[in-house]
Amino acid sequence: MEENEPGDALYLIEDGDFDVLKNRLGSDVCVVRRGNGQIVGELALLYSVPRTATVRASRRSTVWVCTQDVFKREVKNSVEETTLSKNIFMEQVPVLSTLPLETRKHLADAMEPVTFQPFTSIMSEGDANDGKLYIILSGRAVVSKRDPNTGDNRTVNHLFRHDFFGEMETFRDLDTREFTVSSAEKAVSCYCLNREVVLATLSSASQKLLDEKSQEKIRDRMRQLKGEKSWKDVEITLLGSARIGGKQVNITTTARVNPLSFSENTDREISKIEFIEKEILGGGTGGCVHKVISRRDGRLFALKRVRKLAVFDAPAHIFCEKEVTSEISHFSLMCQHASFQDRAHLYMLFDLMDGCDLMDLLSSAVKVKMIPSDVNGQVTNVPTQMGMDEDAARYYCAMIVLAFEYLHANQIIYRDLKPENVLVGLNGRSKLGDFGYSRKLGVGERAWTFCGTPGYVAPEICLSKGYGFAVDWWALGVLTYVIITSRQPFTISKDPSQKDDPIKVMRRIVDMTYKVQYPTYASDEACDFISQLLQRNDMNRLGNVQGGARRIKEHPWFGKFDWELLESGDYEPRAVTLSSQFMQLQRERLRALEHDQLVATEMDSTRGPHDASMTRAAEVFKDF
């Protein structure tokens, strides 16, 4: 059966499996699955209405058919119509359909219909909790929460027919409502249950009801509403993976894959993917990154390989990176396409950036010029170190603004901005990478972990205060200063030997009397932009005030910048030219890195099947 098509029959599943799909905001979302002994299409037996959902068999199935005429003649007249419709409705609500029959009968008797006109507030954040629970009959409701910093309401969920709301505050014994729930463009009709009924009949199912609103399930729902498909388990083969002594091996395992990254026709399921491993691109002590080529279509990716033994004592960063990068999809960010593991390594497949990082680019751009300066009351030319010109810097900052705007809208805090984490392709386009310190942060929630690079951390992190998304905007202020001046704003000191002491750097960051010094060649607009980001009071910090990222885009430093062109993906920055000296140094560094990685891989391969460390690492990463 197809949604919105006429229907006049009920189907009882004798043997089979069916997906029940509903069109929500333009995407077909699987809302429930039906199997043996269950029914579909029951609403058509009561009313002559179009089908409310599409039902598709996921395998060969057998059903019994009961037409509307037969049902009316044999069944309908034996029960009161309203009670019957309520019971049929509850059969379609997954968390209620499993309740005992007597409990459902009691709920049906207690349900009161209520309708809210379009764009009406059903409950408001901060209102007294009246204990009512609502189950949606028709329409769409929008769930939002107020951002305490900007004052903006952030949409955190969408609710449709068979969804419910209002249960959390009652089951958790809260005095006030935690969220605002409003009807959307059409009226919302609900069944309403009062506090006494909710507590008396649903307390035994309270955990199941609360679990339906878990962050994981809400994130999955929001992804589906955006048209994103669920990740799939497929067989993946890595051909020619480098090993010690010039040997190469093939690795075949099961990978978790984003189907949209590999399917030409997204309706066609992928089952197998093959990659050829090529040259090393970079890395560190814990792992390396190789270029890989898809055998099917020749597409290029970057494959990050991490030694389990290098990270199993502190696995949180690698799990955070895997979770966050699998959820994001934006051209300003390094997005993940697949993840898998073998006995000794963890793997994540990312976009390929074929240039360098922003720090490499800054190093090649640094120059010294004679700049007129006031020295003891006299203007004299002073040799002054300079970074990038402001036009180039403006592009990289703008891309980071888009990245943070997207991340924060999806409740992700980044926490580790620095030039080394901004990757630049040879075509000049940049992406933000390395999400090891990123995490999901609820609206109004604060983080407490000290993390980041000392010169870039915000005052609230240094002072061990709870912090939110504003720390990312502070770091953007530091980065903007760095790429324009090639110096750190909080490491300027008359004593050069002390300027890199992280403790003294952080003391300057929190010192209200310490003033950042701006070079004379920096424009007034750039200095003002940086100073508004480097507000020690996060409530006054640009990006964290009302208007959010929009206020940054409107700043005079971006006065002539074409944000519309950038956001369309058609902005063409300057191409990157890497010097022969840089390339030679890079080749030497990569040769040393590759040697170290091969030696580590050889050491891991000599560990037996019962090695204690390998066994422990396998347990830590069993769910990777």
Look at the structure and give the CATH class of the largest domain: Mainly Alpha
Largest sheet: 7 strands, mixed, barrel
What's the domain count? 4
Low-confidence stretches: 494-498
Q: What's the number of helices?
A: 20
Radius of gyration: 29 Å
And the CATH topology of the largest domain? Transferase(Phosphotransferase), domain 1
Q: What's the CATH architecture of the largest domain?
A: Orthogonal Bundle
Q: What is the helical fraction, as a range of percent?
A: 25-40%
Shape: globular
Number of β-strand runs: 28
Strand order in space, largest sheet: 15-16-20-21-19-18-17
At the fourth level of CATH, the homologous superfamily of the largest domain is: Transferase(Phosphotransferase) domain 1
First-last Cα distance: 38 Å
* Sheet/helix structural class: alpha+beta
How much β-strand is present in the residues?
Answer: 25-35%
Mean pLDDT, as a whole number?
A: 86
